[in-house]
Amino acid sequence: MIQSKKRWQIERPDEQLVEQLANDLQLSTMLAKILVARGVTTSEQATAYLHMDETNLHDPFLLYGMTETVECLKQAIKEQKQITVYGDYDADGVTSVTVLTTALERLGANVNFAIPNRFEHGYGPNKDYFEQLHTEGTEVLVTVDNGISGIEEIAFAKSLGMTVIVTDHHEMGEQLPEADAVIHPRHPKGEYPFGELAGVGVAFKLASALLGEPPLDLLEFVAIGTVADLVPLEDENRYAVKEGIRRLRRSKRPAIKALMQVSGHEQEALSEETIGFTIGPRLNAPGRLGDADPAVHLLKSKDEQQAMGIAEELNELNKERQHLVKEIAKEAEEQIQIRYGNQVPYVLVIEGEGWNPGVVGIVASRLTEKFYRPAIVLSIDHETGLAKGSARSIEGFDLYKELSKNASILPHFGGHAMAAGMSLEIADVELLRSNLNEQAKELLTDELLQPKLSIDVPLSLHEIDIAAIEALELIRPFGVGFPKPVFLLEQLETASVRKIGASKDHLKLEMADGDERLDAIHFGAGALADEMAPTIKLSLTGDLQINEWNGRKKPQMLVEDIKCDEWQLFDYRGVRDPARWLPLIPEQAAFVAFTEEAIHHFTPFLKDVPIKLIGRDTLSPVDSIVLIDLPQDEEQLKSAIGSSQANRIYLHLYVHDSMYFEKMPDRQQFGWYYSFLKKRGSFHLRDQMDMLSKHKGWKKSTIKFMTKVFYELEFVTLENGEITMMEPAEKRDLAEAPSYKKRQQQIKLEELLLYAPYQDLKKVFNSLRKIEAVEEEKLWI
User: Fold this and answer.
1) Strand order in the sheet with 716-719
2) Which end of the chain has fewer CB atoms within 10 angstroms, the N or the C?
3) Are 53 and 80 within 8 A, CB to CB?
4) What is the rounded CA–CA span in Å between residue 22 and residue 31?
5) Pairing of strands 140-143, 163-167
6) Do 417 and 393 contact (CB within 8 A), yes or no?
């Protein structure tokens, strides 16, 4: 068996709906399965999904407070009041700032922007920064991607005499800020049809209302912020990202061209994954390490040289961020090991002095992924007495809800179910840790604490081809709310297994189903090749891609997880040098011998590894067992297999003296030898065996064996090498002699176990594993 890394949860789409959708719209069954698995079950729904356009955007004036906001801002523009767009320092925040300031500039507004410094001002509204902005001339303050939880700060800004408009999408508390207007897609007094906009989505709605039409060219920024902020790719979010990516691929903006160049990615192949793993991190980097303003300057730049310079700066900051994350993650994991050992708590709350608050969210994500626990990573500052940090969660533990229960010790926190940010007194960290773990006891069951892999698109090999994979572009983008399909291939034969890469770290498989073939690559899993017996049947999950090499295209799977439900037999018979096969044996495997001789033979090679002797030592259940020599009889083999209950059986089956090729002397040979001894009356074996061996062409070992059989049957006596015939006794069968029986059994065992083809051998052990069936049917020997 090969255990999967995660708990597979397989959902199978309705085959009838799949067939109907595929036929009605002339889609591949692969595409139809993905749509049905996502709840798109009718031709009308599928058509709407596949062919989105501008009509998918809702009227921005459906947002509560939009009319008043537009009137307020247009009056401010008319009067040339100083408008400041106040954003957040992440990718959603900087794209929100870019969208709204660009729209206001197109209307001739006197506008600038401000983004709080993570280290100086913290997250969101800040009184000191608001006072500074007011002093510098701000008359109208518009927040984007923040502000909904800044009750006191917004009140303070109002007290300074500024007009304040809050636009946000984060979770709302029971009280809303007393701003001149609050625009939020889930405003309690509103009836907006879609509540899951990103901050940049809300900014785009305001920009659309101000301009009188959607500024479609700004969808490039909306796509970036929406994907980076991990909001559901449904409804108008889906259209914005789909259309935004289409525009990004052919964008002439210096910022986009520069970001693609410094990251080494092809702009024409840009996708939601490029945004998530390439563009987003680089736009996030300056805000994580200091001032986020350069990210906005880059996005708004109209000069290619300037854009390239800023993009290179962001690229270097991203490298620095990656180094910091690696170092802090290492320290955090060491702290977990020292504090908890193997007893990891329900919720990890880890703190460290001097940790960069800008990257602790990424570290929290890594801890959550590794330990599959909600994780909070805090940076301790003893000068201020504060701990600031970020949290990530797992299914079943709503971070925002559970943190809200600790509001008395969390003066500042915000976020949603799966991610949050916060600050608190250092003295309260232990209380927060204790409280959250007590709360989690009631929520996180053993099942919820097991990593889960949701699989919803099972496929057969005949459904996979170049056209079907290329057609996936029709239903992109994938993301939150419309996840990338996790494909499943079940119980396929392995046509080939090999390690690849310079260090043989990766696994390459060729999977087979009849004449159908598919290559599969599992990066970082080269060691699994040693756990795969010949003809093993595997189930694989992962992504499907097109591999192009020398102008030839082939489908292939990039494997995410793999498992085998059947037991495995590994054949190292005939590999004489132990150094060639011993390194392939798992560390916890039990080595089993059937003779003392085998133990003596292998002890020098195994050194301190104990060898169990069947019939003498107790053999407990174990996952892997190594049979180092040939069993003496059927019962020994039954005992080893039954007691170990092993799922992996490794065979070496060492034999000191093989009988298989010597065979058993036939009855004619026994008859001649008996007549020879009877005529002579006596025969000196030691002195005359050479002469007899040459005369008959028999091996000496054969003469000795026949002599021993006659002795055991009491046909002869043997003393000092002298064989003497005895008086005729009752007729006896040669098989009554213990030596004859033992040799007969060894020959059969060697034929069955040593020289049988692999498939026949596996059938034998398959029968042995079904002990009751073996007892009833006596399938072998």
Assistant:
1) 682-684, 722-725, 716-719
2) C
3) no
4) 8
5) parallel
6) yes
- Distance of alpha carbon 2 from alpha carbon 508, whole angstroms: 16
609: exposed, middle or buried (Cβ count in 10 Å: 0-12, 13-18, 19+): middle
Within a 10 A sphere around the Cβ of 169, how many other Cβ atoms?
Answer: 27
Identity of residue 115: I
Residue 60: helix, strand or coil by DSSP?
Answer: helix
| Peptide linkage before 738 cis (omega within 30 of 0) | no
- pLDDT at residue 737 tops 90: yes
How far, in Å, CA of 646 to CA of 664, rounded?
34
Q: In whole angstroms, what is the distance from residue 455 CA to residue 486 CA?
A: 5
- Hunting for tokens 């599928």 — which residue is that? 46
Question: Do the Cβ atoms of 739 and 705 come closer than 8 Å?
Answer: yes
Q: Whose CA is closest to 763, among 569, 554, 472?
A: 569
Tally helices (H) and strands (E) across the chain: 28, 26
Mean pLDDT across 232-259: 97
Classify burial at 160, counting beta carbons within 10 Å of its beta carbon; exposed 0-12, middle 13-18, buried 19 or more: middle
Nearest C-alpha neighbor of 60 from the set 213, 170, 166, 171: 213
Rg, C-alpha atoms of the chain: 38
CB 225 within 8 A of CB 96: yes
Residue with tokens 């090749």: 529
What's the rounded mean pLDDT across residues 311-337? 95
Can you tell me whether residue 616 is helix, strand or coil? coil
pLDDT score of 136 more than 60:
yes
The answer to whether residues 542 and 8 touch, using CB atoms and an 8 Å cutoff, is no
3-state secondary structure of 354: coil
What does the block give as tokens for 586?
């798992």
Residue 206 and residue 167 in contact, taking contact as beta carbons nearer than 8 Å: yes
pLDDT tens digit sequence for 86-105: 999 999 999 999 999 999 99
Task: Give the β-pairing of 552-563 and 537-549.
Answer: antiparallel
Kind plus residue range of the DSSP H or E element containing 391:
strand 386-392
